Amino acid sequence: MSDLLAARSQMGVSLAFHIVFAVIGIAMPLMMVLAERRWQVTGHAIYLDLAKRWAKGTAILFAVGAVSGTVLSFELGLLWPRFMEFAGPIIGMPFSLEGFAFFTEAIFLGIYLYGWDRISSRAHLWAGVAVALSGTASGVFVVIANAWMNAPAGFELVNGQAVHVDPIAAMANAAAVSQTLHMTLAAYAATGFAVAGIHAFLLLKDPANAFHRRALEIALMVGAPAAVLQPISGDISARHIAAHQPVKLAAAEALFRTQASAPLTLGGWPDVAARETRFGVEVPYALSLLAFHDPHAVVKGLDLVPESDWPNVPAVHLSFQVMVAVGSYLALLALWTVWLAWRRADLAHNRWLLRAIALATPMGFIAVEAGWMVTELGRQPWVIYGVLKTRDAVTPMPGLVVAFVTFTLLYCFLGVIVVWLLYRHIIRSPAVPEWRGFYMPPGRGERGAGSST
Amino acid sequence: MAWVLYAARARGAGSGEQHVTLADLLAGIVFVVLNAYAVLGGADFGGGVWDLLAFGPRRERQRELIAEAIGPVWEANHVWLILAIVLLFTCFPPAFARLGTLLHIPLSLVLIGIALRGSAFTFWRYGADQEQRQWGMVFAVASLITPFLLGTTAGAIASGALVGGGGATPGDSLTVAGDGFYTIYVAPWLSPFPLSVGLFALIAFAFLAAVYLTLEARERELQEDFRRRALAAGIGLFLAAVVALLLSLDGAPRVRDGLIFAAWALPLHLLTAAAAITALAALWVRRWRAARVAAVTQVSLILWGWALSQYPYILPPDLSIAGAAAPAATLRLALGALALGGAVLLPSLYYLFRVFKGSARTT
Question: What span, in angstroms and rounded, lies between the C-alpha atoms of B10 and A41?
Answer without folding.
Answer: 64
